[in-house]
Amino acid sequence: MLKSNFFLFLSLKGEAFNLYFLVSLAVLGDDKKKWRPRKYSYSRWGCQLKLKFPMVKLLNYEENWEFLTENNNPFAVVIMAYLKSKETRKNPLIRLESKLTLVRLLYERGYSREMVIQLFRLIDWMMILPEELKRQFQTEVYNYEGKKRCLILPVLNRLV
Fold first, then answer.
1. Helix or strand holding residue 81 (H, E)
2. For the chain, how far is it from start to end, CA to CA, in angstroms?
3. Are 88 and 127 contacting, i.e. CB atoms less than 8 angstroms apart?
4. Which pTM was predicted?
5. What is the DSSP string of 33-74?
6. Over the stretch 95-140, which tens digit does the pLDDT of each residue have?
7. Which helix (H) or strand (E) segment is 9 a member of?
8. By CB neighbour count within 10 A (0-12 exposed, 13-18 middle, 19+ buried), where does 112 fall?
9. What is the Cα–Cα distance from 160 to 121, expressed in whole angstroms?
């Protein structure tokens, strides 16, 4: 299903925007280590259609945590959030600490205010905390922001 949807999306986007040199990348965030689709094809009545695409498996980065922590690319933080959310699924206290660490990292990397807000929203969506820990998280972030003198969380609370 993913491969055919991938093909359909690529075809429709190309048509809609007159893009004849459209490139696609499949970023897979599943738990199946051996599932690695790289192509989609079908044939019917003598016609054949084929799409080959590069693929990145987020699970591959589990062994490369140090690379992610040293990489200033914002997508490295997204991958870290994905991996930590998977790892802490059943341990809310460790999830809280991991989430706080990632949010602090957003400030330390010197991203723009808008980038911090967008990445913060994504991390918050990926790493959902139980109600009793949400307040603790907000308090910790407020305290951290106060020390850094860059209040972004109040802006986020107004946007939600």
1. helix 74-87
2. 33
3. yes
4. 0.71
5. TT----EEEEEETTEEEEEE--EEEGGGGGGGHHHHHH---H
6. 999 999 998 898 888 888 888 888 988 999 999 999 889 888 888 8
7. helix 2-16
8. exposed
9. 10
